[in-house]
Amino acid sequence: MRLHFRSKRLLRFIFVSFLLFVFVVYYYLFAVASKDLPIADHLKKKNIDKASSLLSTSPSPVVERYKEQPVHYNVHVFYYPWYGTPEFDKKWLHWNHKFLLHWNEMEAKRWPQGQHNPPDDIGANFYPSLGPYSSRDPAVIENHMIQIRSAGIGVLGMSWYPPGLSDDQGIPFDDLVPLVMDAADKHKLKVTLHIEPYKDRNSKSMRQWIKYIIKRYGSHPAFYRMRKGTKELPLFYIYDSYQVTDWKNLFDPSGSETVRNTELDAIYIGLLVQPKHLQELAADGFDGVYTYFATDGFTYGSSQKLWPVIAKQAQDLNLLFIPSVGPGYIDTRVRPWNPTNSRDRRNGTYYTNSFRTAISTKPSVISITSFNEWHEGTQIERAVPRTYKSYTYMDYAPHKPDYYLTLTRQLTSEYATVSSGSN
What we know:
alpha/beta; ten-stranded mixed beta sheet; two-stranded antiparallel sheet; 13 helices; 14 strands
């Protein structure tokens, strides 16, 4: 009996030990192994998984078949990397945008003041499909590149300030350029810079920063270049270029700070706001003009009925004309006093008309305002229905969240067809 009892105890011990061994092996393989990866690899895996998760929240043929879409490098979209969250940036950035005051003191008192309180209350009339995100989140950057590629767009016009500088709602983000370029290159996209009106901007400081950009980023495979004559040159958009009066020093071949026929030569595109800017930009040595604003009629340059005339004038002045199209405009969550400049999307009709008017001018490049300027409601990024307390955000109904990506793909294809037919 004793021997039999001991044998049973021994068998029980062996069985329990075997179960413990199986548990340890399972735990190591499936729970601990990923922790033994180098930190960078572990984060990369985590971010890829997160990007996949973000994309799978609402599957669509556009996203699933994005790699099949052609890339049109003559279609550029303005991209804003200035958003932040406490998780990635230690505080909210831009989503908590302040209400901008009207310039008339008495009028200003009629409208809300203070700022928004994310994540439910954000400074935008639409609500992003990704929620209020950080532009530093690698999974978000990856998601954005997939959305942009799915739309047939080839180039991001990335908002840029010099290192250490930013707009008054955010923090510096020059360090994001390599991250965006790496992600863009993975999806066969290119990146150019949309140079903002940074503090003390003039021809001398601009030369310094152009040198910095080309030295730091010019060798990256995603750095955008465009053919001019026999050369492949970088292209830069310069926002609010009319604020600087000494551009001739930089862009005229005989200027004191000239970049022409140097390693800093590029295609420099100035903002067309008033009629006089065409002549002024040509005289200053710019290579072209763009119109930026998505509000038809807001400026001379953004008045779409004038685009055929402007295109002809630009051609006569040997300037590129780059019309900027947009899906609509509404900024009343940051400028509540500005409903006059709102332009209803009309379920995509506004965007379609804008794009086709641009195509009719036979431009070398069309720019889109914007991928993600949420404050001004010009985004084509995915948006979703959302209600918070008494406020209901706008959305793309009756269409799906990716409607404007789909529509952009159709319109870029039309543009490609017309462009190839005119060559």
